[in-house]
């Protein structure tokens, strides 16, 4: 077989390797997790094609041995993604969460002093584990709610920071490789793939030098680019693991506070990391009815089937959440905590507001939307002057 053809066949395992990337996005929607069998079929087909290419290109040379190294690295990487998709399906998550009780007392807020962002991170991670349980058997709701609302007892900003941590942990479980990376198996696989890829990068120059006259310079350059790209992605993945919230939770659970301080010097404090845009989309039904916003070139957009989507986006506005709104929500929750108690049987009192709506859910949502708009207009001056509603 021609040497350049063999080198070109050597690129096939890189397809498997890069199909397993990135670690930060394994699913673009929850449906991807539920359809993990489809991705498993893709893994089987791509692996079969790589094996077929390997059989055709096998010559017993050093390059063929390196092909095996990259094939196993790519198979592990792509297999990781498929396994995580299955692991992130809702039923699998619920079945995999341990039944043992969640003990918050061992990791009390006093353990960290003024570093309550780490305490909040720990509680957020534990709360996500409770959320994915179909039944909460060994967790007392009063204890859990007390830890959550205790974080917001002094500042509404802390409450919203805590919710950022909760949503971040939830997204990690559903849309990234987090369920696998922070296990012994996942870390072992990551070490193996890094070792295989780096070994190929070290040994490939020796193969090129030995048969320098056989290979095209262009093909050799492309191969080096593929190898360097794979190594850079592996190093980037290691940095993400060390700077992630989940790794900090592991350090908290094992009380590795000296390691946490060292990480602060490298990646900064957990409380300073920005986890979302602080913006939310707003839609006013009354504005939609009273103020029409025609689309440019409506016939063309309709033909391209983009008119409905652009029309929805045209009436939605991204607004930054003001601090006074966060303060208002925090005050409201603290008042609710003072005037209500959560029973020992995991029962949460229901607010009587809204129980008068006996019509369908759609009508209730519509009525509340109109009522909110009217209230906003009535309290508009108070909002501008004092920054709160007269509720």
TrEMBL record:
InterPro entries: DUF4220
Coiled coil location: none
Signal peptide: 1-27
Annotated keywords: Membrane, Signal, Transmembrane, Transmembrane helix
Domain of life: Eukaryota
Domain DUF4220: 3-288
Regions crossing the membrane: 51-76, 187-209, 221-242
PANTHER family the UniProt entry points to: OS01G0798800 PROTEIN-RELATED
Protein name: DUF4220 domain-containing protein
């Amino acid at each position: 077989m021609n040497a350049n053809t063999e080198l070109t066949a050597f690129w096939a395992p890189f397809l498997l390797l890069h199909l397993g990337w990135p670690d930060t996005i394994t699913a673009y929607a929850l449906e991807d997790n539920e359809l993990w069998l489809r991705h498993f079929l893709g893994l089987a087909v791509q692996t079969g094609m790589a094996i077929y290419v390997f059989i055709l290109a096998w010559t017993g040379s050093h390059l063929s041995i390196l092909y095996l190294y990259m094939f196993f690295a790519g198979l592990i990487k792509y297999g990781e993604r498929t396994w995580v998709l299955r692991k992130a399906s809702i039923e699998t998550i619920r079945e995999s969460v341990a039944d043992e009780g969640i003990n918050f007392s061992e990791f009390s807020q006093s353990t960290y002093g003024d570093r309550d962002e780490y305490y909040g991170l720990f509680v957020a991670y534990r709360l996500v584990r409770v959320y994915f349980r179909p039944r909460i058997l060994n967790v007392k709701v009063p204890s859990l709610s007390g830890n959550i609302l205790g974080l917001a007892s002094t500042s509404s900003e802390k409450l919203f920071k805590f919710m950022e941590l909760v949503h971040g942990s939830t997204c990690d479980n559903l849309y990234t490789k987090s369920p696998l990376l922070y296990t012994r198996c996942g870390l072992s696989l990551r070490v193996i793939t890094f070792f295989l890829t780096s070994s190929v990068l070290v040994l490939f120059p020796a193969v090129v030098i030995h048969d320098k006259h056989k290979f095209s310079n262009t093909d050799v350059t492309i191969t080096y680019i593929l190898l360097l790209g794979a190594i850079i992605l592996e190093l980037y993945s290691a940095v993400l693991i060390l700077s992630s919230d989940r790794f900090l939770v592991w350090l908290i659970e094992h009380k590795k506070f000296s390691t946490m301080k060292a990480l602060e010097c490298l990646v900064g404090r957990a409380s300073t990391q920005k986890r979302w845009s602080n913006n939310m989309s707003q839609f006013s039904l009354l504005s939609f009815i009273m103020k029409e916003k025609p689309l440019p070139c409506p016939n063309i957009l309709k033909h391209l089937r983009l008119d409905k989507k652009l029309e929805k986006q045209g009436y939605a506005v991204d607004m930054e959440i003001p601090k006074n709104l966060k303060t208002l929500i925090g005050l409201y929750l603290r008042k609710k905590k003072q005037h209500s108690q959560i029973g020992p049987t995991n029962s949460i009192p229901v607010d009587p507001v809204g129980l008068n709506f006996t019509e369908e859910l759609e009508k209730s949502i519509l009525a509340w939307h109109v009522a909110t708009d009217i209230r906003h207009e009535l309290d508009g001056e108070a909002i501008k002057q004092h920054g709160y509603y007269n509720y």
